[in-house]
Amino acid sequence: MAAGEVVLMYRLEGDRGRKLKMIFVQNGLRIRQIPREEYNQPIGALAGIKEIPRVEEVYDGDELAEEMLVFRGVYGKRLDLLLAQMRKNKVAVNLKAILTEHNVGWSGLQLYEELKKEHEQMHS
Fold first, then answer.
1. Is the Cβ–Cβ distance between 67 and 11 less than 8 Å?
2. 52 and 45 in contact (C-beta within 8 Å)?
3. Cα–Cα distance between 95 and 43 in angstroms, integer?
4. Does 32 map to a domain?
5. What's the predicted TM-score (pTM) here?
6. How many structural domains comprise the chain?
7. What is the pLDDT of residue 11?
8. What does the DSSP assignment read for the chain?
9. Residue 73: inside a domain, yes or no?
């Protein structure tokens, strides 16, 4: 995967979205706000990985019930710093993931369902 720090933002609008964008921009991340029509696109393609093709089909289903963030190229202490800034600014997001070789081809919807399951298991 090519270098470059990117964050995909799903369902983060309004004041919360603005606060998060400010944090990410101040830390040099590229931001991509994902519209509902692109929820079926592979997250790798949305994060700028040219080897991952986009799908032609436009998503016209329901909006996600929760917010979600996907980070590309952000790891370790750098990720810890971003998460700490999010907590400090009271804009924590429950569903978060890092782009990996395993999930790079998943759609935003697939990742959302997987993260929801994991979150429910951790908090039950």
1. yes
2. yes
3. 14
4. yes
5. 0.93
6. 1
7. 96
8. -----EEEEES--HHHHHHHHHHHHHTT-EEEEEPGGGTTSBHHHHTT-TTSPPPSPPP-SPPPSS-EEEEES--HHHHHHHHHHHHHTT---SEEEE--TTTTT-BHHHHHHHHHHHHHHHT-
9. yes
Gap between the terminal Cα atoms of the chain: 35
Report residue 118 as tokens.
């994991």
The residues, ordered by sequence, that sit 6+ positions from 7 with a Cβ below 8 Å of its Cβ are 24, 29, 30, 31, 32, 69, 70, 71, 72, 74
State mean pLDDT over 87-111.
96
Residue indicated by tokens 């009271």: 90
Q: Are 113 and 95 spatial neighbours (Cβ–Cβ below 8 Å)?
A: no
Range of the domain at 66: 17-105
Amino acid at 12: L
96 contact partners, CB below 8 Å, separation of at least 6: 68, 69, 70, 71, 115
Q: Domain for residue 120, yes or no?
A: no
Confidence of residue 2 (pLDDT cuts 50, 70, 90): very low
pLDDT score at 66: 95
Tell me the pairing of strands 68-72 and 95-98: parallel
Tell me: pLDDT of 3 over 70.
no
What residues form DSSP beta bridges with 98? 71
